[in-house]
Write a structure and sequence with these properties.
Shape: globular
Radius of gyration: 17 Å
Distance between the termini: 5 Å
Number of domains: 1
Helix content: over 70%
Largest sheet: none
Number of helices: 10
Order of helices and strands: HHHHHHHHHH
Number of strands: 0
Length: about 210
């Protein structure tokens, strides 16, 4: 990841993280637009759901913000110990963010299609993280980098989800929100993963390495 790309990803990650923290943690999560919209289709949400939402927000934000630093080669090479420490924190973020996300997927707005979309996102998010962890434990750095690129493309779904939400709302309005959200549940992460695979393939051909 070069400096320009790193700045773009970092800025978007921080922007969305700040928005999420403000909306759900600083303000009243019960009054958040996302929650109020969900309550239009579900009569009530229990306290455990809100607990899982808070866990998902906190740990996903941690992973979203830390991710670009773990992928930036200059930072990694000059701060190897910090890289390892951030990597451990990142993995904890994925573990709790993914587990809570899987639970929340069962309550996703948009019905079964949305539930499956977010459910698969949470599962693959945790699988790619575990693969990255296994590879680095066996000192397979090249393979570790590939899995980290895949994993962060899924972490970045937090950003692309909100971009697609804005676009779909402008194009199709709130009256079609359920259908739009069902599509976005897949659109927020599948293209990201495809781009990650293309990036891995291109960098391998051009430079023989992955993260620059």
């Amino acid at each position: 990841m070069n400096k320009k790309t790193w700045l773009i990803f970092s800025s978007l990650a921080i922007l969305i993280s700040g928005y999420s923290i403000f909306q759900y943690l600083i303000m009243d999560a019960h009054q958040a637009g996302f929650v109020k919209l969900k309550l239009m289709y579900i009569s009530t949400l229990n306290s455990f759901w809100y607990t899982m939402l808070y866990i998902h927000i906190v740990f996903s934000v941690v992973a979203l913000v830390i991710g670009p630093f773990t992928l930036f080669s200059k930072f990694r090479e000059k701060n190897i110990n910090r890289h390892r420490m951030l990597g451990k924190i990142y993995m904890i973020g994925i573990l709790f963010g993914g587990a809570s996300g899987l639970y929340l997927a069962f309550y996703a707005t948009g019905g079964l299609v949305s539930q499956l979309g977010f459910g698969f996102l949470a599962i693959i998010w945790m699988i790619t993280a575990s693969q990255a962890l296994v590879k680095i434990k066996h000192r397979k750095i090249y393979e570790h980098q590939k899995w980290m690129i895949r994993n962060y493309s899924l972490t970045f779904a937090a950003v692309t989800l909100r971009i697609w939400l804005v676009l779909f709302t402008v194009l199709f309005g709130f009256e079609n929100f359920n259908l739009s959200y069902a599509i976005i549940a897949w659109l927020c992460w599948l293209p990201n993963l495809i781009v990650a695979e293309l990036l891995i393939h291109r960098n391998r051909q051009v430079t023989g390495t992955l993260i620059k």
